[in-house]
Amino acid sequence: MKPLQLLCIALLLCLSAISASANTKAAQPKQSSRVPILLYHRFDARATNFMTVSPAVFESQLAYLRTNGYRVIPLRRLVDWRLGKAPAPPAKSVVLVADDGHRSIFTQMLPIIKKYNTPVTLFIYPSAISNADYAMTWDQLRTLKKTGLFDIQSHSYWHPNFIKEKKKLSRDEYLKFVDIQLRKSKQKLEKEMGGEVDLIAWPFGGLPDQDLQERARQAGYSAAFTIVRRPAAPQDAAMLLPRFIVLDSDRGKTFEALVNPPPHAR
Ligand SMILES: [Zn+2]
């Protein structure tokens, strides 16, 4: 074979390799580096509480996500990404969560979630369930879980303010209290619901100190959530993942900005 022929063959091989690599790149879906976690609390057509969202507004938000190419991914998918167990979620990913176990999650949120077939993670504090008049029952929570759309995780045992309790209690009392909030909550939820509980949403949004974060890790939690208003990003600590509280006023342009924050809102 003449040197020129060899050169041509080498060039052809090289060009086909470049084109194959370009094709692979084109085939890969775009990935999200920042994912908004939308946090709900309760639903009612009348605003009985500043965190009450009307079912009509909630449905319009899900409709907006659907018609504008957003994907509602399970919180677990985002956690796996943050823990290095999965690649970044697809572009325009959004996560839905709800704190506190209010009964309107069962009566108002469930039908809309079923209609849009979207995953939701609920953060529950067991002391209220089948006990407080505003809260769901264990049977209702089990019904939600059976739909395959709801994951049930921890929101401490009785929704205390860790920062206040730390100031008030002796060291020994505080450690006992932390143990109940972290471990008893996890055990009770696992016993009542089955499955593993390894995520916790900090109550009242107070940022936990390093000691509390470490104790949560030791108690078996792999990720935890705050109410710092920005999308979850790779630089966030797994025990301090941020979430946006959604309000009834988050309609139209306000909601659009929430799920598509400007690049500097890290
Ligand atoms: Zn709460």
Describe the biggest sheet?
A: 6 strands, parallel
- Which distinct ligands sit in these coordinates? zinc ion
Topology pattern, helix = H, strand = E: HEEEHEHEHEHEHHEHEEH
Q: Report the CATH C-level class.
A: Alpha Beta
Q: What is the CATH architecture assignment? A: Alpha-Beta Barrel
Distance between the termini: 59 Å
Counting structural domains, the number is: 1
- Round the mean pLDDT to the nearest integer and report it: 90
Instruction: Give the radius of gyration.
Output: 23 Å
Number of helices: 9
- The best one-word shape is globular
Give the name of the CATH superfamily: Glycoside hydrolase/deacetylase
Regions with little confidence, pLDDT below 50 for 5+ residues: 6-26
Beta strands, count: 10
Q: Helical amount among residues, as a percent range?
A: 40-55%
Secondary structure layout plus pairing:
Layout (H helix, E strand, L loop, with lengths): L2 H25 L9 E4 L1 E2 L8 E2 L1 H13 L3 E2 L2 H8 L10 E7 L4 H13 L3 E5 L13 H9 L3 E5 L7 H7 L2 H23 L5 E3 L8 H9 L4 E3 L18 E2 L6 H8 L7
Parallel strand pairs: 1-5, 1-10, 2-3, 4-5, 5-6, 6-7, 8-9
Helix pairs in contact: 2-4
The structure holds zinc ion.
Outline the structure in words:
Mean pLDDT is 90; it is low at 6-26. Helix 2 runs parallel beside helix 4. This protein is α/β, with parallel strands linked by helices and 266 residues long. The termini are far apart. The chain contains nine helices and ten strands.
